[in-house]
Amino acid sequence: MKTKTLLIIFVILLVFVIGSFFLKKGESSFRNELVTLDSARVSSIVFTPKVTGKKEITLSGEGNNWKMLYDGKTTDADVKLIQQIISEIKHIRAERVAATGEDKWKAFDITDSAGIHVKVMQGNKTAADFVVGKFSYNQASRTPYSYLRIKGDKEVFSIAGYISMLFNRQPNLYRNKVIVDSKRNTWTKLAFHYPADSSFVMSKQGTQWMVDGIATDSNKITGFLNSLAQLRSTSFVDDVKKPLSPAEFSLQIEDDKSGLITISASPADSINKQIITTSMNKDAFFSGAKENLFSKIFVPKSRFISQ
């Protein structure tokens, strides 16, 4: 009986040990943290969006000076968007293993041909190298998911968030889109210079905005200033002939914090109507006709005051 009892105890302990071993092995094989990244040392991000036909986009730079290389052209990049991308990469965490073999890759658009290949460099060192697959949304939990595979591995992981959408945008969305980037609370004067006698000045006196010295509807002015303060556009014009024709319209914003902000509109072809330039994004040229950009900036005096 003693021998039989000892044998039973031994078998139970053996089963427990073996079960614990495989449980720990299973836990250790699941990698929650897939990427280790030093945000401050990222020097370039190279990826192949589906919307470009897998044509490569390279974002490179440091601090507040980033460039985008696409289709042989180098342009200023959107620093805030790049900071968001780096943060998303740094915080990639696997929610679960979605697949363990190549036979399942196609279902998640994670094959080399269908997926978006992303490589992050820190100088000459590859800091992250992965493939992003399709985007999905869990209606029950209202949670967005992307699918990701580390380059060279077979496992596919489900990642909470919109990372697949960050790397599948039209190239212009990664460029510096700034027309105005300021805080209207520090503005003191806006001078609209128009042809003929249609120019006018909007000035701040205390807390009241005046148009040519006349009190106006504060709600109308506030709405306009809010939209102007963070104005962006993707209506880039890259084949501009220089020098530009003299500006027919201009807006000068006196900002106690940023100094003088100048936006100008010069005559252009029948498609763009005007070429718009801004002192806050000196290397960019924007179409006045597309996105109704010209009419968003160069408003008539009658918008604020009854004639």
SSE blueprint:
Elements: H1 2-29, E1 44-47, E2 57-62, E3 65-70, E4 73-76, H2 79-90, E5 94-99, E6 116-122, E7 125-138, E8 143-150, E9 156-160, H3 163-166, E10 187-193, E11 200-205, E12 208-211, E13 214-215, H4 218-229, E14 249-255, E15 259-267, E16 274-278, E17 286-287, H5 293-297
Antiparallel strand pairs: 1-2, 1-6, 2-3, 3-4, 5-9, 6-7, 7-8, 8-9, 10-11, 10-14, 11-12, 12-13, 14-15, 15-16, 16-17
Task: For the record, give the distance between the C-alpha atoms at the N and C termini, rounded to a whole number.
Answer: 110 Å
Overall shape: it is elongated
Order of helices and strands: HEEEEHEEEEEHEEEEHEEEEH
Biggest sheet details: 9 strands, antiparallel
What's the β-strand tally?
17
Mean pLDDT: 90
What's the structural domain tally?
Answer: 2
Helical amount: 10-25%
Individual helix count: 5
What attributes characterize this protein structure?
alpha+beta, 2 domains, 20% helix, 17 strands, 5 helices, nine-stranded antiparallel beta sheet, eight-stranded antiparallel beta sheet, 307 residues, single chain
